[in-house]
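Hi,

Apologies if this is the wrong queue. I'm a grad student, and the batch job for Armadillo repeat-containing protein 7 from Ceratitis capitata produced an output file that my downstream script rejects. I'm not sure whether the problem is my script or the file. Here is the sequence I used:
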Amino acid sequence: DILLLSAIGFRINHGHLKRRTPEGGIPRPDYIEHLVEEYYTTTDVEAKEQVTANLANFGYDPINWEYLKEANALDVFEDCVKSPNERLQLNALAGFCNICLDPEAFKFITKSEIFDQIKLLLNTAENTDIHLNCIALFYQLLTSDTCTQEGKNIIATSCILKTITQLRNASPDQRVKNIAALYCEDFGSRVEETVDSKNVLATLKTIKK
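Support response: The file is valid. Your script probably expects a header line. Output copied below for reference.
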């Protein structure tokens, strides 16, 4: 189950937030909003890590997607994916993995400034969990009902396929190898066909000249 991959390695610690939560609890939408507020107001890095891990895990249940969007949790994930902190990066990728099947979230994640940053993480990160979550995210985006041909052209590129193929062959993490192999099996031929078609068109244009 690819969705489960996004939750691997994230320790949920509610202690810090419980100290600031009214006795008897608060409604879920308010709690999610509280988490987002906590992210922006705290200067404690560990607190930010705990908050974003919680937000990412809320995304696992589709009933929370509207709450997360209304609270601007997607902006938090964007901020984290651009952070140099690997745990914040991982939490952001996990959050994106969990909510990416939502049409609005899909459009948000595939905006060039965000998607390019995720591609950069896939290409430059040494953390295998980052590789795992990036590939899981790409796979889910490509299989989403929201994904049009235009979306596939953005996500299933020859450059991304090349990187994932390298990870399939050389990653020290068997989980990464497995999901990379699945991606290559399901989408590799589509990318090759697209590249071949572009090459044919380029050749025809040259011949016409």
